[in-house]
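Preliminary data (for renewal application), NDP complex.
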Amino acid sequence: MSIQGKTALITGASSGIGAATALKLAKNGVKVGLAARRADRLAALVAEIERDGGQAVALEMDVVDSASVASGVAKLAEAFGTIDILFNNAGLMPLSDVEALKVEEWHRMVDVNIKGVLHTTAAVLPHMIAAKSGHIVNTSSIAGRKVFAGLTVYCATKHAITALSDGMRIELGKKHNIRVTCVQPGAVETELLEQISDPAVRRQMEELKTQMEFLKAGDIADTVLFALQSPSHMDIAEVFVMPTQQAW
Ligand code: NDP
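Predicted structure:
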C-alpha cells in the first residue's frame, strides 16, 4: 500500500537505524516526527529532509519519561494532524556479564528498551484506534530470538519486545485494523556499541567488524519500508534480517 502523505513517529531518530529510516520514509513521501534526546542531531536531520523536499519535525524526547513522550506526540499530531506509523526503535545495549552486577545499566536497558516502547505505544495508540488504522514497527533483535552469554539482560529486553509485538498484533489487528511488525536485525553498523562501558567487552564487540561485513542502517530502513508498503490485508509480523557472514 502507498505510504505517501502518511505521518510517522520514529524514536531513536538521531542516529543509526532510526536516522536512516527517517530519511528513507521522508523520501517516500512520509511526514516524519524525529524523536530522540540529542536535539542538535535532530535539527540537522530535519534540515537534510527539508532540503530534499520532505517534511519533518524534531521532537526532543526521552522515551523513559512518559510526560516527555506525551508532549512530543502532541506536538507531532498538531504539526501533521494524524499519526499513522510508529517506529519504536530507540534502544541501548550496554553489554556486560551478569556477574559484573552493572545494575544501573540493567535498569537503563529495561527503562529505554521496554518501558520506552510502552510509553510511546500508549501515547500513539489512541490516534490509531480513532483512525481505525495504523502500523507499529518495533525494533527487536536477533537477541529477541536467541540468548547469548554476555548479552543476558539485553536479550531479556529484546525478547520482551518480540512478545509485546506478537501480543499487540493479535489484539490490535482484527479489532482495530492496526498492523504490528517486529524487526529482528543481526549486527548493524551504528553507534550502539558506544554504550558499552566495559573496555574489554567493547573491544570484543568492535573486533566482530573485522570478522564480517555488518548490515548497514539503510538495510534495516529498506526492511521497514517493505513492511509498511505491503498490502493492507497483509501484516509482515516478524522479519529476521542477518548479515550474510554472521554465522551465529
Ligand atoms: P544507535 O546508538 O545509533 O541509536 C540508538 C538511538 O536510540 C539513538 O537515536 C538514541 O538517541 C536513541 N535513544 C537512546 N536512549 C533514548 C532515550 N532515553 N530516549 C529517546 N531516545 C533514546 O543504535 P542503533 O541504530 O543500532 O539502535 C536502534 C535500535 O536497533 C535499538 O533498539 C537497538 O537495540 C536495535 N538493534 C541494533 C542492532 C545493531 O547491531 N546495531 C542489532 C539489533 C537491534 P539519543 O541518544 O539522541 O537520545
